[in-house]
From TrEMBL:
Residues 251-327 are annotated as: Disordered. PANTHER family: MUCOSA ASSOCIATED LYMPHOID TISSUE LYMPHOMA TRANSLOCATION PROTEIN 1/PARACASPASE, MUCOSA-ASSOCIATED LYMPHOID TISSUE LYMPHOMA TRANSLOCATION PROTEIN 1. Residues 281-297 have a biased composition (Pro residues). It comes from Nitrobacter vulgaris. TPR repeats lie at residues 344-377, 412-445. This is Caspase family p20 domain-containing protein.
Amino acid sequence: MRVAVLAVLTLTMVLAMAPSVASAATDGSTRIALVIGNAVYPDSEAPLKEPVNDARDVAAELKHDGFDVETGENLTGEAMRLALKRLYTRIKPGSVALIFFSGYGIQSGRQSYLIPVDAQLWTEADVRRDGFSLETILGEINNRGAGVKIALLDASRRNPFERRFRSFSAGLAPVIAPSGTLVMYSAALSSVSSDAGTDHSLFVSELLKEIRVPGLTAEETLNRTRVGVTRASRAEQVPWISSSLAEDFHFIPGRDGQPDVAATPSLPPSPQTEALSPSVSPSPPAPTPVASAPPTPKASSGQAKPPAEPPPQSRDDGKTALALADDPTIKSLTTRIAAKADDANALYRRGQVYASKGAYALAIKDFDATIRLNPKDVEAYNNRCWTRTVIGELPSARRDCDEALRLRPDFVDALDSRGLLNLKSGANKDAIADFDAALKINPRLTSSLYGRGLARQRSGAVAEGNLDIANAKAMDPDIVKEFTGYGVR
């Protein structure tokens, strides 16, 4: 009798100390995960603080929950490719396959790309070359036979790459995923979360808190996470969820498969919130594409002269502001700014969208507000420099370009912007110097190549100028139209 009792007690202790084993056995499926934390990007001013710490904590929790976890930190493109390949080979029919990524993500062509630390991104084509498409990853996981596919992305950050593109959509895009997939982004579609400057992100802190609650389905876990992040951030950060799961999956099953606690009620719908239904969530609407965005602002020296061409629209009238008020991205950002007038991130992003749509005066107002809140925001100075250059406000544009370069010497985007400023000012030698400096950093920067060609032509170096222009046109057939839009021919 004592032996039997001892056996029962031992079994009870083993089960209590190893919920991961019980969890995996209850779901009856192999659990595998790839967890990546990318923090050290050479294009960033400083390493991100959260990704590595968050990746380690998520990996530890998933191991506790019965997952076979591979963890990668600061992975290059080749390292990410190999890690994904190993993930694919570990998948067995009916497996639960999970990928967690913390770092920079970029939306291009309505797809979301995970960015390795050695990515060289200057055009959107580079994103597709160096980044890893989430849709492609989930498709391959599905093709390998995984029954449940989960993707958790803490990558909705304001990153150092997107401002380089002539067109952009901030944040991440809705994913077209195979059946049986659960996806969560740390922020709403086409939105970015503010950098808290802490060692752990709010998103991961709330996620781990809910994963540890026994008895919740994965959908309930993520929905509670969304509610927790939204409440903790006072609705400034609202995670996005999409689900096509056809079966229940639990990170930690409760007794007899029943939840040990009631699910947290959902928050009321908000402009940035997508509610998660118990089994299937509605397909997310595609984000409204943003029109051509300005090239990254540039910097320069020289004397300002009146532009030779009439500048593009230099002031926004009431009709423009009214028409843009219904743009979904602008509407969402305006709602955030109305709730918190000192949201510098939302002001900066709205300024970018305004500028991309030709609403230059409105863009400048938002960049003004951003700089008042953060006098060291080099991207805001750069974008305001570019916008002022386009509309012909050259002296004030020069001050912005020079300040951007003072804050970040050799800032290629600011060099490119100042080159355009000098070109419009007629300071061709200064323009050539700025474009030369930009091209030394990035030889594929088409706008600097074309701008240098024009400056060389105007300086009398016609043959060299013609060669630059021909090479720029070969790289980007629309570059002539782009510069015409700046008032430069």
